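Backbone geometry:
***
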Amino acid sequence: MKAFCLAFALLLTPFAAQADVGEFPIKADDGTTVANHSVAADIVGRIETLQNIVIAANPTGKVTLYEFYDLNCPYCRKASADIDELVRANRNLRLVLVPFPVLGIPSILAARVEYGVNKIASPEDAYKFHRAVYAGRGTIEDSRAFAAAQAIGLDVVEVRAKASDEAFARIMTEHLRLGDALGIQATPGLVIGGIAIVGYPGKAALAKVIAAVEKCGKAICP
């Protein structure tokens, strides 16, 4: 319980103030400037060492998109649907899901259930759960998350047992600290091609970034 309270306190701690007006000229679908900044390769590499991440699609893809999300973030819901279409259309796009519950108690409860799912499910089923959770509307908390797990055929009793693991608080704290190191101040936070995109730019804008990374290894090609 003490560890959980510590993790919750960290969730409520604001990120360090940092202006992000867009280091690179990336425009969102609505024409506004996308908040983005460079991220060091060694910090990005630390994402792969986190526990409770899911390589959700195309594990051998040449371009990796890291998606930091909160299950109660409406922009994350939209991003998830669009990204699902992008990974289905592009076998070179490798998707890694990074739970990042920062929007309060319901998000933490839902993330705990998701943690239980990730402990017992294959990456494919974990991704099915992720998409199923976002299928509805309204606040997502533990009951909604358990219902999504049951809907894809998982044993809810087993999920509940794994979700009670005391390691959850420590692992989520590691996610939050790394997100802070990456400068992710809002959800969704997308990391690709050496940059972090803070907020969702839209499907077309993200597709352009992905295409650039495929072409030259950077979000913006020379």
